[in-house]
Each structure stands twice: as C-alpha cells, then as structure tokens.
C-alpha cells in the first residue's frame, strides 16, 4: 500500500513541476525571443511481484506481474524553433532570421544567437533582439548587458539613429561603419542553459563559433522587427489543464490510500 502512495505522490510532484514550467512559458508569451520549455516525463523502473508458498508447500516463487513505482520529470528542454516576426519600426529592434542550417549528427537543427556580455564580463547568448542604447551610446539589452560585435567588443552606436544591414554591419548616424553584430552558431542548442533576462550559458568547451563567413550557414538581420516568443498560448493552456487533471487524479488516489490506512490503523487493528 505504501508503494502505491509513493507512486501517487511522485505523479503529483511531476505534474506540479510540469505546471510550473508551463506557467512560466505562458508568462513569457510576449517576451521577445523567448524559447518555450518542453518537459520530458519518465517512469521509474517497474518492480516485479512474485508470490511464495501459494500452495502451502515450499517451491519456486510464482510471478504475478509488475508494479509501477511512479514517474518523474526527467528534464526541461527549450524549443529553439524560430518565432514569428513583428514589425515595430524601432531602430533598436533587430530580429535574427535563421536561413539554411547544416545537418547535425544529433538530428536536431542548430541555432543562431547574438553574443552578449553579462555584468561579470562573461560571454552569454540571446535571441532577444529588443535592444536599447545606454547613456554612453553602447548597444545593450533591456537589462543593460552589452551586445558584442564580431571583434568581441561592445558596440558603440552613439545614439538611436544608427542603421544595421542584413549582414549585421552597423553604421552610425553619419553613415560610418562602427562594427558588425556577432552572430554565433550552436550545433547542439541543448548545451545552452537559461540564466534569466533572456541570457543563455554555453555548457560546452570554449565559446560558440561565429557564423559570419560560414558558407554552410545563412541568416539575415531585420532592423525595425523583433522575433516574438515561440510559445503557443492555446496549446500551453491545453497542456496546463491536462497537467492539472493528472495532478487531481493522483491526489484522489493518494486520498483513497490515506483513508484505507486510517481504517487499517483505527478499525482493523482494534482489539475488542
């Protein structure tokens, strides 16, 4: 009986974690460049049940069947599918469009990212093209992190009257080229971990290689556009209802086990 309680409790925990993930996805449905998380649920190994001495005499155990021991949320994986574009007309909004991408050994498509410098000076990556210009004239993310150029340095545009062409070349108000936006390629995007504020940390060795000059990769930068979140709000709501119903079902099973245990302790075990 206790194994059944543990199984139901494991199901409740897994669905609660899935619900939290889906809630976060829905909360970021309007966050530019946000990539929705997907959950992978797996079952714990089943237990083989056997009965001994079923005929009243010693002998080999008789196999009855298997007992499920519950499920768990194995991992959360971002979906790096390209989001829809929305025109804003703002010079500081720059959308990154992926074109032809090489076929990878993992079978998953690679992905392209901007290069960002966080507050500690470390290199991070992002798909959020909703940028701004700080007081010193540097191109930054809304959180104040510097956007890096192909030379690995922050890009100083002077003011918001700058221009970016499709190849990522940046020109200031006077029409002088000041930098080139660095676009990097991740062969296996699953090695990137979300850190918040739209930043991703690479878990592999070194930094991601630049996609500039790579003939196997094509991309375009569109100034005055942003890449919207790839969260499907309707599908997310449907999955949230499914997770809620699964949580309730496991809760009812747990309550039934609790009532059975109460009777076993207070009634069956009573001597009178």
From TrEMBL:
Domain Flagellar basal-body/hook protein C-terminal residues, every copy: 222-266
Main localization, broad class: other
Gene Ontology CC annotations of this record: bacterial-type flagellum basal body
Compartments in which it is found: Bacterial flagellum basal body
BP GO terms, sorted: bacterial-type flagellum-dependent swarming motility
Flagellar hook protein FlgE/F/G-like D1 domain span: 111-170
Pfam families the record matches: Flg_bb_rod, Flg_bbr_C, LlgE_F_G_D1
Official protein name in the record: Flagellar hook-basal body protein
UniProt similarity note: Belongs to the flagella basal body rod proteins family.
Superkingdom to which the source organism belongs: Bacteria
Record InterPro entries: Flag_bb_rod_N, Flagellar_basal_body_rod_CS, Flagellar_FlgE/F/G, Flg_bb/hook_C_dom, FlgE/F/G-like, LlgE_F_G-like_D1
Stored PROSITE patterns: FLAGELLA_BB_ROD (PS00588)
All residue ranges annotated as the Flagellar basal body rod protein N-terminal domain in the record: 5-35
Alphabetic keyword roster: Bacterial flagellum, Cell projection, Cilium, Flagellum
The keyword NAD appears for this protein: no
SUPFAM superfamilies attached to this UniProt entry: Flagellar hook protein flgE
């Amino acid at each position: 009986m206790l194994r059944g309680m543990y199984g139901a409790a494991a199901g409740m925990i897994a669905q609660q974690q899935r619900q939290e993930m889906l809630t976060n996805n829905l909360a970021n449905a309007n966050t530019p460049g946000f990539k929705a998380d997907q959950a992978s649920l797996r079952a714990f190994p089943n237990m083989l049940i056997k009965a001994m001495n079923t005929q009243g005499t010693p002998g080999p155990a008789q196999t009855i069947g298997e007992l499920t021991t519950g499920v768990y949320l194995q991992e959360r994986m971002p979906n790096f599918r390209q989001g829809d574009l929305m025109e804003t007309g703002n010079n500081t909004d720059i959308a990154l469009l992926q074109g032809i991408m090489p076929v990878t050994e993992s079978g998953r498509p690679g992905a392209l990212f901007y290069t960002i410098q966080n507050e500690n000076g470390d290199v991070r990556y992002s798909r959020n093209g909703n940028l701004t210009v700080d007081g010193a004239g540097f191109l930054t993310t809304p959180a104040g992190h510097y956007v890096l150029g192909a030379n690995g340095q922050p890009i100083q545009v002077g003011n918001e009257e700058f221009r970016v062409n499709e190849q990522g070349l940046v020109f200031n108000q006077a029409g002088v080229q000041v930098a080139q936006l660095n676009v990097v390629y991740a062969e296996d995007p699953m090695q990137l971990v979300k850190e918040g504020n739209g930043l991703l940390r690479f878990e592999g060795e070194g930094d991601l290689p630049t996609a500039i000059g790579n003939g196997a990769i094509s991309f375009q930068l569109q100034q005055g556009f942003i890449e919207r979140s790839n969260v499907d709000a309707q599908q997310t709501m449907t999955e949230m209802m499914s997770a809620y119903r699964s949580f309730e079902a496991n809760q009812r099973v747990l309550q039934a086990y609790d009532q059975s245990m109460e009777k076993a302790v207070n009634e069956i075990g009573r001597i009178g």
